[in-house]
Every structure is written in C-alpha cells, then in structure tokens.
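User: Can you recover a sequence for this backbone? Please restate the input before giving your answer.

Assistant: Of course. Working from this structure:
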C-alpha cells in the first residue's frame, strides 16, 4: 500500500482548487460529480488532494455542517482491496464498507471506521 490522497471537505471545490493551483503550483487533473458531490483531484507529487464539495444532501454536506471545512479522510492505494479488508477484519477494525463499492474516478473503495484507526477515517482505494 501507499498513500494515495487526502480528501478535503469544502463548500466550493473549484474555488479551493484555484487557490491550491496558484498557491502551491498544483494542477487539477480530474473533476466529476459523484454520489452527491463535486470531486476535484489535484496532483501533488505522487499523490493527490481530493476536494469534496456537496451538490446535494449527503455525507459531505453533513460533515461540513458538523465539522466545517477540512480534512475528511486519508486514502491508501492497494492493488488488492479484498485482501486489505480481510487484513482489517483480522485486526478487529470496524469496517464502514464490508464490500468494496464504486468510488470516484472509477475506482473501487472501502472505508474503515475512525474509532479503530486513531480517529482518522481511512479509505482503501484500488487502482
């Protein structure tokens, strides 16, 4: 596994993408609307910043209401998401997703519950 991206909840993904492009010299390399969100990926070296803007009620809208803008999750890339989930089960880590599900950019994803991962929402993403 390796670090893939940090998911950042924001009220305006395009505005934040423009700031990060100008401020950090990053490049927006992918944008889509998915699962009630506008998602913008900015390339940052070998990894990405994933900007998450709600376009309808859902997980990110609720997160912003409760927590405000900021880091929502950290994602680790794997070439075997089923094996990664099995390893999490073996370590008694609670799974939000028992099975992989479709994620942004056409990848399969699954989330681990933050109560068992040091307070961090962790996403497995299969490339």
């Amino acid at each position: 596994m390796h670090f893939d991206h940090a998911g950042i909840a924001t009220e305006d993904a395009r505005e934040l993408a423009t700031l990060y492009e100008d401020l950090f010299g990053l490049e927006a390399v992918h944008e889509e609307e998915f699962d009630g969100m506008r998602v913008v990926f900015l390339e940052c070296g070998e990894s990405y910043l994933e900007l998450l803007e709600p376009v309808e009620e859902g997980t990110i809208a609720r997160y912003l209401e409760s927590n405000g803008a900021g880091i929502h999750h950290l994602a680790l890339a794997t070439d075997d998401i089923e094996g990664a989930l099995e390893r999490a089960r073996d370590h008694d880590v609670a799974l939000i997703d028992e099975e992989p599900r479709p994620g942004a950019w056409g990848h399969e994803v699954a989330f681990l519950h933050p109560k068992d991962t040091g307070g961090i929402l962790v996403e497995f993403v299969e490339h």
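That completes the design. The domain at 2-126 is CATH 3.10.180.10 (2,3-Dihydroxybiphenyl 1,2-Dioxygenase; domain 1).
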